[in-house]
Protein backbone atom coordinates (compact mmCIF):
# COMPACT_ATOMS: atom_id res chain seq x y z
CA UNK A 1 0.00 0.00 0.00
CA UNK A 2 1.36 3.41 -0.99
CA UNK A 3 2.00 5.64 2.01
CA UNK A 4 0.88 9.27 2.06
CA UNK A 5 3.59 11.83 2.54
CA UNK A 6 3.30 14.31 5.37
CA UNK A 7 2.81 17.15 2.84
CA UNK A 8 -0.12 15.27 1.31
CA UNK A 9 -1.73 14.84 4.70
CA UNK A 10 -1.36 18.58 5.39
CA UNK A 11 -2.90 19.41 1.99
CA UNK A 12 -5.90 17.14 2.56
CA UNK A 13 -6.38 18.60 6.04
CA UNK A 14 -6.32 22.17 4.69
CA UNK A 15 -8.76 21.34 1.90
CA UNK A 16 -11.13 19.76 4.42
CA UNK A 17 -10.87 22.81 6.65
CA UNK A 18 -11.61 25.21 3.78
CA UNK A 19 -14.57 23.09 2.70
CA UNK A 20 -15.98 23.13 6.22
CA UNK A 21 -15.68 26.92 6.37
CA UNK A 22 -17.28 27.31 2.93
CA UNK A 23 -20.30 25.20 3.77
CA UNK A 24 -20.73 26.87 7.16
CA UNK A 25 -21.75 30.19 5.56
CA UNK A 26 -22.81 31.28 2.09
CA UNK A 27 -21.97 28.90 -0.74
CA UNK A 28 -20.91 29.93 -4.23
CA UNK A 29 -20.29 27.55 -7.15
CA UNK A 30 -19.33 28.02 -10.78
CA UNK A 31 -20.56 24.60 -11.91
CA UNK A 32 -22.49 22.01 -9.92
CA UNK A 33 -23.94 18.66 -10.84
CA UNK A 34 -25.39 16.74 -7.93
CA UNK A 35 -28.19 14.32 -7.15
CA UNK A 36 -29.00 16.06 -3.89
CA UNK A 37 -27.75 19.08 -2.00
CA UNK A 38 -28.63 20.29 1.48
CA UNK A 39 -27.42 23.70 2.62
CA UNK A 40 -27.84 25.40 5.97
CA UNK A 41 -27.78 28.91 4.47
CA UNK A 42 -28.14 30.52 1.06
CA UNK A 43 -26.54 29.33 -2.16
CA UNK A 44 -25.07 31.52 -4.90
CA UNK A 45 -24.29 29.97 -8.28
CA UNK A 46 -21.58 31.54 -10.39
CA UNK A 47 -21.50 35.12 -11.62
CA UNK A 48 -24.35 35.64 -14.04
CA UNK A 49 -26.05 38.54 -15.74
CA UNK A 50 -29.81 38.45 -15.00
CA UNK A 51 -30.47 40.06 -18.38
CA UNK A 52 -28.82 37.25 -20.36
CA UNK A 53 -28.53 34.20 -18.10
CA UNK A 54 -30.66 32.22 -15.74
CA UNK A 55 -29.65 32.77 -12.14
CA UNK A 56 -31.23 29.42 -11.31
CA UNK A 57 -32.82 27.04 -13.79
CA UNK A 58 -34.86 24.23 -12.19
CA UNK A 59 -36.13 21.56 -14.58
CA UNK A 60 -38.32 18.62 -13.63
CA UNK A 61 -40.30 17.93 -10.48
CA UNK A 62 -39.27 20.44 -7.84
CA UNK A 63 -40.50 21.06 -4.31
CA UNK A 64 -40.47 24.41 -2.53
CA UNK A 65 -41.36 24.44 1.16
CA UNK A 66 -41.61 27.25 3.65
CA UNK A 67 -42.66 30.79 2.75
CA UNK A 68 -40.64 31.69 -0.36
CA UNK A 69 -40.89 35.14 -1.94
CA UNK A 70 -40.75 35.09 -5.75
CA UNK A 71 -40.03 38.45 -7.41
CA UNK A 72 -40.03 39.21 -11.13
CA UNK A 73 -41.66 37.27 -13.94
CA UNK A 74 -40.73 33.61 -13.33
CA UNK A 75 -41.65 30.94 -15.86
CA UNK A 76 -42.48 27.65 -14.14
CA UNK A 77 -42.56 24.48 -16.26
CA UNK A 78 -43.16 20.91 -15.24
CA UNK A 79 -45.19 19.87 -12.21
CA UNK A 80 -43.72 21.66 -9.17
CA UNK A 81 -45.20 21.14 -5.70
CA UNK A 82 -45.29 24.35 -3.69
CA UNK A 83 -46.26 24.18 -0.03
CA UNK A 84 -46.41 26.93 2.55
CA UNK A 85 -47.46 30.51 1.91
CA UNK A 86 -45.44 31.81 -1.04
CA UNK A 87 -45.67 35.48 -1.99
CA UNK A 88 -45.40 36.07 -5.73
CA UNK A 89 -44.76 39.62 -6.93
CA UNK A 90 -44.87 40.51 -10.62
CA UNK A 91 -46.16 38.56 -13.60
CA UNK A 92 -46.29 34.77 -13.30
CA UNK A 93 -46.33 32.58 -16.40
CA UNK A 94 -47.21 28.94 -15.77
CA UNK A 95 -46.78 26.37 -18.54
CA UNK A 96 -48.26 22.92 -18.08
CA UNK A 97 -50.85 21.51 -15.70
CA UNK A 98 -51.92 23.52 -12.68
CA UNK A 99 -53.91 22.10 -9.79
CA UNK A 100 -54.85 23.50 -6.40
CA UNK A 101 -55.59 21.38 -3.35
CA UNK A 102 -57.49 23.78 -1.14
CA UNK A 103 -59.07 27.18 -1.68
CA UNK A 104 -58.08 30.23 -3.69
CA UNK A 105 -58.92 33.71 -2.42
CA UNK A 106 -58.73 37.03 -4.23
CA UNK A 107 -57.60 39.69 -1.81
CA UNK A 108 -58.36 43.31 -2.68
CA UNK A 109 -55.08 44.60 -4.10
CA UNK A 110 -56.14 48.23 -4.25
CA UNK A 111 -58.92 50.39 -2.86
CA UNK A 112 -59.62 53.47 -4.98
CA UNK A 113 -61.07 56.25 -2.87
CA UNK A 114 -62.33 59.61 -4.12
CA UNK A 115 -61.63 58.38 -7.63
CA UNK A 116 -60.79 61.00 -10.26
CA UNK A 117 -63.37 60.37 -13.00
CA UNK A 118 -60.91 61.30 -15.78
CA UNK A 119 -57.99 59.19 -14.50
CA UNK A 120 -57.26 55.63 -15.62
CA UNK A 121 -56.87 52.76 -13.16
CA UNK A 122 -53.55 50.90 -13.36
CA UNK A 123 -53.85 47.11 -13.81
CA UNK A 124 -50.32 46.39 -12.54
CA UNK A 125 -50.50 43.76 -9.81
CA UNK A 126 -54.27 44.16 -9.54
CA UNK A 127 -56.78 41.32 -9.81
CA UNK A 128 -59.49 42.53 -7.40
CA UNK A 129 -60.21 46.08 -6.33
CA UNK A 130 -62.86 48.09 -4.53
CA UNK A 131 -63.87 51.48 -5.90
CA UNK A 132 -65.00 54.03 -3.34
CA UNK A 133 -66.32 57.01 -5.29
CA UNK A 134 -66.37 60.39 -3.56
CA UNK A 135 -69.93 60.89 -4.79
CA UNK A 136 -72.35 59.72 -7.47
CA UNK A 137 -69.99 59.87 -10.45
CA UNK A 138 -69.74 58.85 -14.10
CA UNK A 139 -66.27 57.96 -15.30
CA UNK A 140 -64.95 59.90 -18.29
CA UNK A 141 -61.52 58.23 -18.26
CA UNK A 142 -60.21 57.15 -21.66
CA UNK A 143 -59.31 54.43 -21.02
CA UNK A 144 -60.93 53.56 -17.70
CA UNK A 145 -58.30 50.85 -17.11
CA UNK A 146 -54.86 51.40 -18.63
CA UNK A 147 -53.86 48.98 -21.39
CA UNK A 148 -50.17 49.94 -21.42
CA UNK A 149 -49.05 47.04 -19.22
CA UNK A 150 -52.12 44.81 -19.58
CA UNK A 151 -51.60 41.16 -20.52
CA UNK A 152 -53.97 39.26 -22.83
CA UNK A 153 -56.18 37.06 -20.67
CA UNK A 154 -55.65 39.21 -17.56
CA UNK A 155 -58.75 39.42 -15.36
CA UNK A 156 -59.77 42.28 -13.08
CA UNK A 157 -62.75 42.10 -10.75
CA UNK A 158 -64.16 45.45 -9.60
CA UNK A 159 -66.49 45.80 -6.63
CA UNK A 160 -68.47 48.93 -5.95
CA UNK A 161 -67.96 50.60 -2.59
CA UNK A 162 -69.16 53.94 -1.26
CA UNK A 163 -71.53 55.79 -3.64
CA UNK A 164 -72.30 54.85 -7.24
CA UNK A 165 -69.70 54.92 -10.02
CA UNK A 166 -71.05 54.56 -13.57
CA UNK A 167 -68.76 53.12 -16.25
CA UNK A 168 -69.38 53.75 -19.94
CA UNK A 169 -69.06 51.28 -22.80
CA UNK A 170 -66.56 52.10 -25.55
CA UNK A 171 -69.50 52.67 -27.91
CA UNK A 172 -70.93 55.25 -25.50
CA UNK A 173 -67.62 56.88 -24.53
CA UNK A 174 -65.06 56.39 -27.28
CA UNK A 175 -61.71 55.46 -25.79
CA UNK A 176 -63.00 53.98 -22.54
CA UNK A 177 -61.90 50.62 -24.03
CA UNK A 178 -64.63 48.88 -22.04
CA UNK A 179 -66.69 46.36 -23.99
CA UNK A 180 -69.62 46.06 -21.60
CA UNK A 181 -72.83 44.06 -21.83
CA UNK A 182 -74.78 47.34 -21.82
CA UNK A 183 -74.12 50.96 -22.71
CA UNK A 184 -73.25 51.66 -19.05
CA UNK A 185 -72.71 49.76 -15.80
CA UNK A 186 -73.53 51.42 -12.49
CA UNK A 187 -71.41 50.04 -9.65
CA UNK A 188 -73.05 50.57 -6.28
CA UNK A 189 -72.05 49.09 -2.94
CA UNK A 190 -71.43 45.35 -3.38
CA UNK A 191 -71.98 45.29 -7.15
CA UNK A 192 -69.36 43.28 -9.01
CA UNK A 193 -68.00 43.70 -12.54
CA UNK A 194 -65.53 41.17 -13.96
CA UNK A 195 -63.42 42.21 -16.96
CA UNK A 196 -60.95 40.30 -19.13
CA UNK A 197 -58.32 42.01 -21.28
CA UNK A 198 -57.70 41.05 -24.89
CA UNK A 199 -56.18 42.88 -27.86
CA UNK A 200 -56.47 46.43 -26.56
CA UNK A 201 -59.82 46.27 -24.77
CA UNK A 202 -61.40 45.12 -21.51
CA UNK A 203 -64.33 42.77 -22.11
CA UNK A 204 -67.13 42.21 -19.61
CA UNK A 205 -67.12 38.63 -18.39
CA UNK A 206 -69.76 39.02 -15.73
CA UNK A 207 -71.83 41.60 -13.85
CA UNK A 208 -73.78 41.16 -10.64
CA UNK A 209 -76.11 43.86 -9.36
CA UNK A 210 -76.18 43.30 -5.60
Give a brief rundown of this model.
With 210 residues, the chain is mainly beta.
What can you see in these coordinates?
This protein is mainly beta and 210 residues long. 9% of the residues lie in helices and 30% in strands. It contains one helix and 17 strands. The strands form six sheets. A six-stranded mixed β-sheet has the order 9-10-12-16-17-14, with no helix packed on it. β16 and β17 (201-208) form a beta hairpin.
Fold blueprint:
Blueprint: H1 6-24, E1 27-29, E2 43-45, E3 63-64, E4 69-71, E5 75-77, E6 81-82, E7 87-89, E8 93-95, E9 110-113, E10 128-132, E11 137-138, E12 155-160, E13 165-168, E14 178-179, E15 184-187, E16 192-198, E17 201-208
Parallel strand pairs: 1-2, 3-6, 4-7, 5-8, 9-10, 10-12, 11-13, 14-17
Antiparallel strand pairs: 12-16, 13-15, 16-17
